């Protein structure tokens, strides 16, 4: 019997150490991910609890209902329209971790609009802060409310009522143009709607109205 020199065990020990280190690293990573998921979903449990009280399609883990809106803008719009037709009053959908409610019932919309606490904008507006600053278009909460009070004097009910005739005239022009283009597949509807909005602004603020031909 003779004893194997200790140096001969070093490669095996090094391999064992690397294996143990890899296993420990994987276990720590899994625990970290598990802790993050528990913490993330634990803070949002009310969202999930109340969302199940609202009708909507089955949501897959992580992606939710985002698969329904993949593709070009037409397919995304068709996805929204299918949801609204299946649940005409209110429907919920998950876009990844983001919960979205689509409301079409006038009574529900009225309650949302009339609530003074529902004044926060979506996080999507944060993208425009760099371009437009933190003004009335992008601000949230109390800051938006203070800006809105200043603007209210310029957009009071009496002032808006005086513009109803102009809005009606411009809307009639827009409808007439749409009737002339029924069946046209390449109709630039977005551009036409934008020009209609510009005409409304010009007519109400400066008293200037464009010709109908500029819509087309």
Automatic annotation (TrEMBL):
One of its GO terms (molecular function) is monooxygenase activity. The keyword Membrane applies. The chain crosses the membrane at residues 20-41. GO terms for cellular component: endoplasmic reticulum membrane. The keyword Translocase does not apply. It is a peripheral membrane protein. It comes from the Eukaryota. Its cofactor is heme. Belongs to the cytochrome P450 family. May be involved in the metabolism of insect hormones and in the breakdown of synthetic insecticides. This is Cytochrome P450.
């Amino acid at each position: 019997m003779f004893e194997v020199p200790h140096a001969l065990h070093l490669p095996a020990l090094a391999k064992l150490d690397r294996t143990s280190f890899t296993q420990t690293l994987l276990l720590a990573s899994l625990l970290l991910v598990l802790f993050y998921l528990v913490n993330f979903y634990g803070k949002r449990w009310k969202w999930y609890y109340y969302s199940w009280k609202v009708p909507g399609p089955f949501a897959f883990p992580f992606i939710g209902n985002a698969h329904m809106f993949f593709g070009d803008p037409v397919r995304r719009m068709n996805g929204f329209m299918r949801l609204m037709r299946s649940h005409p009053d209110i429907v919920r959908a998950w876009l990844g971790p983001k919960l979205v409610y689509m409301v079409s019932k006038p009574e529900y919309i009225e309650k949302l609009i009339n609530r003074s606490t529902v004044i926060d904008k979506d996080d999507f507006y944060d993208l425009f802060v760099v371009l437009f600053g933190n003004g009335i278009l992008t601000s949230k909460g109390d800051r938006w409310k203070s800006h809105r009070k200043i603007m209210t004097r310029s957009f009071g009910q009496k002032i808006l009522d005086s513009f109803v005739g102009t809005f009606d005239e411009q809307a009639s022009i827009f409808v007439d143009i749409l009737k002339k283009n029924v069946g046209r597949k390449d109709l630039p509807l977005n551009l036409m709607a934008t020009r209609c909005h510009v005409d409304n602004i010009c007519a109400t603020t400066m008293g200037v109205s464009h010709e109908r031909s500029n819509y087309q």
